[in-house]
């Protein structure tokens, strides 16, 4: 298989962290079964994984590999500190595949694409010298969108890697345990000795070098511990969910404004949305909070980076334009273009049981009667206007919609323009969503010639302070590729499509998360020994009630509808 180099990648080689790996003419760089540690992957399935299938979704291997590891500007630890960090209770490194798979992130072997063997979605962000770009000042470990939007689904020894699908990873537990590992390394002399040997090499016995390293380790242990405490919740997220907005709101209103009392528990975890079709909708996010008109996608992605460890310097600007940040705006723009080209995965009939065509035809008619008014069928690349359904009408868990309306003290932003270059001025308090908007626009206009056209700047002046139209509602979207996106409902409270199409009182009160295995009959998450986390729908934010559409179908018609949903 020959490697195809995208024109976009070649045109931007100088600015991208991943494309500079590519060498025109190499013919043996196709992703293959040796790029992943199948023995580690197998612990996420009941059966040993023999073959890895990279699904055909419109990307070549160059695009896929770059998407997995391109930096967006996220910085959760200095890079060398991260790759040399041991697990809390082990001499093994935190990056050991058998540790990474424990959290259901996707471990990878070292390869041409990935020299350090980072898991999918983990990145190396390089900070270059301002005066000499050939010199590197610092490197940081971070995340990009593929950490949360890449999935593996397994069935009888076959693994299907699906780009843009919601991850099964446990974000909360991974970073809690990473912080615990930092603390253990700082406190345990023997653990620190091993850490120093890896970090300092021939200088590992130098007292001054060791003290500097210990000081740096202590600083980052404090930074991560403070964030851990700020984002502590009573109900664990578990696999396949995160309260992204809750953590973003805390970052922008408490950390970045240096107002600790602005922090609120990020206690509305939601299922990760799938990425294919994102560019087709007029708004995005479960509650439709983000416009998808340019430069909306860029702003949305920049906001995501601020929530996953991106740096920003927010201050009274005194005539300065915007805020300095670590956000890699050009990389975000390129990745957004790739997402526009991403196709939903087709049900793989060579791996999973074939679709019953007669049943699917019957199911299509049922879909038109019961589902299509909200979940319209949209052709690839066609745009559509999202259907927003009020929370009271749909009856699903209300916590995410309500938390989006949280307010905070504006601190140093009081008196500043909400839209940085336009809009009303901040009072003493504001919606956290408006504070987020201010910081996103501030980092964008800080580099206007690389991010925004003059017309877009004028658009921001007009639109910057308008709230979204449907504050307590949830978005219905087309269901292309829905078979690969369990668990279901916005908060991930239903494990299969079969369960979703039953009355709420008949849905599972508890179920297991963490297995990569699919149930191809019920279509969703298999319940087996590879599942480690118990999801309890009785807990706060976990309700599986509501969305009663199609719940009166007979078992036969329900099966027909599910068979049709496999075809989307």
TrEMBL record:
Transmembrane spans: none
GO terms, molecular function: cytochrome-c peroxidase activity; electron transfer activity; heme binding; metal ion binding
Domain of life: Bacteria
Presence of the UniProt keyword Calcium in the record: no
Coiled-coil ranges per UniProt: none
Cytochrome c domain segment(s): 358-568
Metal-binding keyword on record: yes
Pfam families, sorted: RoxA-like_Cyt-c (PF21419)
Keywords, comma-separated and alphabetical: Heme, Iron, Metal-binding
Protein name, entry field: Cytochrome c domain-containing protein
